[in-house]
Amino acid sequence: MSVSPKLVAGTSVLATGAAMGFGWAAFERHWMRLSRITVPAHPDAPELKILHISDLHLTTRTDWIVDFVRSLADLKPDFVVSTGDNFNSRDALEQVTRAYEPLLEFPGAFVLGSHDFYSPYSSSWSKYLRKDSRKIGDRKRHRIPDLPTEQFTQLLTSNGWVNAQNRAEGVWVETAAGKAGICLVGTGDAHENADSLEHIGLWPDPPLTAEDSGTDTPSSLSQTAGTLKLALTHAPYQRVLNAFTQAEADLIVAGHTHGGQLCVPFYGALVTNCDLPRSYASGLGIWPPKKSGREQLEDTDPAGSRQSWLHVSAGLGTTYQAPFRFACRPTATLLELDPGPRG
Ligand SMILES: [Fe+2]
């Protein structure tokens, strides 16, 4: 049987293209990036530099991510937020500890993702491109938490970071302009239905007595450099974002999407791995979209006229099943709050 030379040439072009694409995607996951974004804020908000990291997905063989996260301490942020998925293997606690160590000298808060409880398992790399990866056999699998969650959360809380997992708490942070108050609220991972929404809207003020805070505090909130309502979640499902927005959060931070991880140049993310529209896969946006853009939402009038800033991190690591990134570099973000002039 003779084979057409055109078929041979076409096949070899396709094979070469595929090999180059995989080669680039394997490289791009190492090409770390810091993004600086200015967030316009209301006049009573503090001027703050907030470092947002997410989805580190560390193993014993991802030292370049550890080194990059450690280097972020040079930014001297006023506050650090981590929105979950720190592990890709059970034996990565040492790497996670090393990554966070320099950041723990700054105040911070965190929520957890499924990959802070459950180690990943082998499945097809194409799983990530499904609209909802949970439908690929996950629910049939009996999952037992097997990651060092306790040790990890202890590491952060013993250094003063707020565990915002289904909790609300107010804290003070020192800034160049004085003490700034941050009213924090967070949820568990909505992708695992571990989110509770009842406490959202409580917004506890930072403590106003030294006994409560253990530090010198202003005698009233009006004497501060401003306060911010900051909401944290791992997976930005619409029900969680709507609850935060209805509660008038100034800024919502989330991870989970990996920015799409495998994107198409000039088109963007193919999936968000949750019910968030593709256009919100990474970066800063306003949630919910303007009324004219709400056709794709579950609830087309989720928060009346209220809107909040939403920052979705593209994350720093990759899923265990697909250790590639394409047109979607691993990214940490410095969110620089810019309050308007006080009247
Ligand atoms: Fe993740």
From TrEMBL:
<dbReference type="Pfam" id="PF00149">
    <property type="entry name" value="Metallophos"/>
</dbReference>
<dbReference type="InterPro" id="IPR029052">
    <property type="entry name" value="Metallo-depent_PP-like"/>
</dbReference>
<dbReference type="InterPro" id="IPR051158">
    <property type="entry name" value="Metallophosphoesterase_sf"/>
</dbReference>
<dbReference type="GO" id="GO:0008758">
    <property type="term" value="F:UDP-2,3-diacylglucosamine hydrolase activity"/>
</dbReference>
<protein>
    <recommendedName>
        <fullName>Calcineurin-like phosphoesterase domain-containing protein</fullName>
    </recommendedName>
</protein>
<dbReference type="GO" id="GO:0009245">
    <property type="term" value="P:lipid A biosynthetic process"/>
</dbReference>
<dbReference type="InterPro" id="IPR004843">
    <property type="entry name" value="Calcineurin-like_PHP"/>
</dbReference>
<feature type="domain" description="Calcineurin-like phosphoesterase">
    <location>
        <begin position="48"/>
        <end position="259"/>
    </location>
</feature>
<dbReference type="GO" id="GO:0016020">
    <property type="term" value="C:membrane"/>
</dbReference>
